[in-house]
Design goal:
Blueprint (H helix, E strand, L loop, with lengths): L7 E4 L2 E4 L1 H9 L4 H8 L3 H14 L11 H8 L14 H7 L1
Antiparallel strand pairs: 1-2
Helix pairs in contact: 1-2, 1-3, 2-3
Length: about 100
């Protein structure tokens, strides 16, 4: 039986790839195609994460204190979510719908 593992979670209203899970599955010898299917993300995403991890010297297992947000900033600093960005007023938007 195949167990589906979700590799995306919400951070500040944005879906973020679960880098920790991708690295964990890769450490178990699971193929990139299978990781992508299991994590509901593209094979390109898996390949980019593994490439960035290799360049940065990051591999599983690693310090439990490293969060997905920190891994995102490490792997993709140019696309990191900036806390200074103003968030939409979701409550107001919901009321208007």
């Amino acid at each position: 039986m195949h167990h589906r593992t979700w590799c995306k979670y919400i951070l500040g209203g944005h879906y973020v790839t679960n880098y920790r899970e991708i690295l964990r599955l890769h450490s178990q010898g699971i193929s990139q195609r299978s990781i992508a299917a299991s994590c509901a993300c593209s094979r390109n995403t898996v390949a980019k994460v593994l490439s960035q991890a290799q360049e940065g010297g990051v591999s599983w297992p690693f310090n439990e204190g490293i969060s997905n947000a920190e891994l995102h900033r490490l792997f993709f600093p140019e696309t990191a979510i900036h806390p200074s960005r103003k968030r939409p007023d979701y409550e107001y938007i919901h009321k208007e719908m």
